[in-house]
Amino acid sequence: MSSQENPEENLPAEQGTAHGAVKVADDPFADPGLPPHRPRIQDIDERAAKRSERAVAFLFTLSMLATVGFIASYVVFPVDKIVYIWPIGHVSALNFALGITLGVALFCIGAGAVHWARTLMSDVEIADERHPIAAPPEVKAKVMADFAAGAEESAFGRRKLIRNTMFGALAMVPLSGVVLLRDLGPLPEKKLRTTLWAKGKQLINMNTNEPLRPEDVVVGSLSFAMPEGLEEDSHDFQKEIAKAALMIVRIQPDDIKDKRELEWSHEGIVAYSKICTHVGCPISLYEQQTHHVLCPCHQSTFDLSDGARVIFGPAGHALPQLRIGVNAEGNLEALGDFEEPVGPSFWERG
């Protein structure tokens, strides 16, 4: 007879607790309770506890020194100082110092608190019964009665003049915070409407720092350019390149659909702003078969063969085009500035 025909004969009803024995629990969902508490080395050895104490104090002291370094960085490093940090590259000395010191200060506080809790604070687990969160009915009744009595004694409902002026005062106080917006910096005025591009400025290849020539741009390629005279080590380079960065693409003239784009190009070479019109991310992904460029931040897609109009994504308007030509030396040059502001829309753009 197989075991499947008589399964009850093969099940141990109850066995002892000897080695290899199996004991069937009466209640499989019974509370197992807390495991027995095991003391840490710091609980039984005072020297180990002192070492942990010194380690925590060292972390907190290091945090204090890092905070002092954070404050000192504002005095030591000028805003326009650029340093080379391997493997990051060229970065602002002030920003790097502020980031390192603040990071160390916050990390040491957290690490010190964790080490303190894990080695010196009590680690005994305590179980307690839950109690109802709601207050008893008699407490609720007393609270409501006290509230009603307070409202009656304050005459809040009858003294309308006091009540209305109090609401007005509370509503006006937050408006004082508007003054803090003045510290955000000067108003942009017309600075966002213009770039360094002007008539006669040559297009400088950002990879070679040499003027671009028409023969340097082949069909299907993507190049990046900046205005002539803008140097990477200048203090305002980042501010100016954020507005003046160009994408240079060569398209077969027959593939250009927009009439103005064709007129503003040179032998199919078109120059468009590299700054996305959504939130200002740099665009660098180009698909030569479709002539589409993709912003890597939020996937806004522009058609460079049709006036760089938006065909997908959250961008609000097309990329501005720069009118270009060739100078007497055979180099590509701008024939003026962008006719519309580059980048995202702003409140005074209109």
Give me the secondary-structure topology:
Layout: H1 41-44, H2 46-76, E1 82-85, E2 89-92, H3 93-119, H4 137-154, H5 160-172, E3 203-205, E4 222-227, H6 237-244, E5 246-250, H7 259-264, E6 269-273, E7 285-287, E8 292-294, E9 301-303, E10 309-312, E11 321-322, E12 324-326, E13 332-334
Antiparallel strand pairs: 1-2, 3-4, 4-5, 5-6, 6-11, 7-8, 8-9, 9-10, 12-13
Helix pairs in contact: 2-3
Structure report:
The chain is an alpha+beta fold and about 350 residues long. The chain is about 30% helix and about 15% strand. It is built from seven helices and 13 strands. It has helices spanning about 40-45, 45-75, 95-120, 135-155, 160-170, 235-245, 260-265, and strands spanning about 80-85, 90, 205, 220-225, 245-250, 270-275, 285, 290-295, 300-305, 310, 320, 325, 330-335. The chain has a five-stranded antiparallel sheet. A four-stranded antiparallel sheet has the order 7-8-9-10, with no helix packed on it. Strand 12 (about 325) and strand 13 (about 330-335) form a beta hairpin. Helix 2 (about 45-75) runs antiparallel to helix 3. The longest helix has about 30 residues, at about 45-75. The model is unreliable at about 1-20 (pLDDT under 50).
